[in-house]
Amino acid sequence: MPLKHPHHQADHPGHGNRDIEVNPIFAREPLSVPRYALPSGEMEPETAYQLVHDELMLDGNARLNLATFVSTWAEPAALRLMSECAEKNMIDKDEYPQTAELENRCVHMLARLWHAPDPRHAVGCSTTGSSEAAMLGGLALKRRWQHRRRAEGKPADRPNLVMGVNVQICWEKFADYFEVEPRYVPMEGDRFHLDARHAVELCDENTIGVVAVLGSTFDGSYEPVAEIAAALDDLQRRTGLDVPVHVDGASGGMIAPFLDPDLEWDFRLPRVASINTSGHKYGLVMPGVGWALWRDADALPDDLVFHVNYLGGDMPTFALNFSRPGAQVVAQYYNFLRLGFDGYRRVQQTCRDVATSLAARIAELGPFELITDGSDIPVFAFRVRDEVDNFTVFDVSAALRERGWLVPAYTFPKNRTDLAVLRIVVRNGFSHDLADLLLADLRRVLPRLEKQPGPYRSEEDAGGFAHGAETKNPRHPGRH
């Protein structure tokens, strides 16, 4: 029997120190390996693979995960390209110049899609996801405000950012990490996101910008970007305050251009300074890639930009991360080539059709009431009707999970904590057929739920998979 490494007995909080036991019929020696310490020696690659593979079978099925906005399906050709580029580091522009060129092309394509004033000289970059892209947008807003205040001889130590309480959690992180006071507009009644009047009411001389969300994670609705911009235009005429808008288009930035072309939310509005989107959401790429764009060079202060050698020339870069994979950027370019405008339109229209059809059929079941119907981004939320008192949305979520469906249940934030909902995210790969199967399973569990003497589950049993619909942390002073 081989000697055990002294670290084999290392305990792990809450789990004990039992080693992993390997089935000797299909695996080679060793038959026992530590869980929370490095093994003392090597093992055959197939043995290591089998151990990891078997444990990962306990994960949920990604295709049945209706909580996540992240792409869970890709064409084999895209996966093959990603595999071929797995070792390429996106930061190494000089070593991988053609990967850098594909990133540059994607920026220009998005600049045209979002109606930048001069797409040929667009300013933008890829990121690890929309959260990093949002933080870059926020940093640019803060730095522009600081420069202006200092040039006017005014203090620049109390910046604030106005947004709806429904913003994704990355904006709370931005405010915390970069010392910006977040001013949240709460939900009221049937208003579940930011509106123009309440946004303007919270703006003052220290406001670095207003964040407008194109596709709220709470219910899938678009915020009225054009109305918010118009109200800020009026504010400037009345007071001289010039407050820019950043559009968090994590989801809607890759939906609205194809399905709502007449909706003005992007750089067609002069008040919009920057936009972020997620390539690995409705950009249809596997995680993780995001994009940040600014309307022009003036919107991105030069002192935030670093310069690297690229094909013998200069290429500006702006990012929080250094090393990150180039494979997802390549996959984004592949999707742009493969689908084109009409292909993206067809994919996104199918997602919206599935969402609106499924929402309507769920509403017809009787116990449920729609909050949204999937007609903005293909995401909708629904609640249990007030007169239903023997089960909750949390009971429904748990019952669907028995069949593998991951449908999050959560309560809305401050001022509407009385509202508990289920949310369904329809992505590419969630077909009409899968929607039929989900509906059949929902019909199957309802009779059992309706026979319950009362609710079995509450918010405490919901788990942690709200994906952006978390309640904002109230511990910081100055929050609204």
From TrEMBL:
EC numbers: 4.1.1.15
CDD domains from the UniProt entry: DOPA_deC_like
Pfam families in alphabetical order: Pyridoxal_deC
Biased composition (Basic and acidic residues): 8-20
Keyword set includes Cell inner membrane: no
GO biological process terms held by the UniProt record: L-glutamate catabolic process
Protein name listed in UniProt: Glutamate decarboxylase
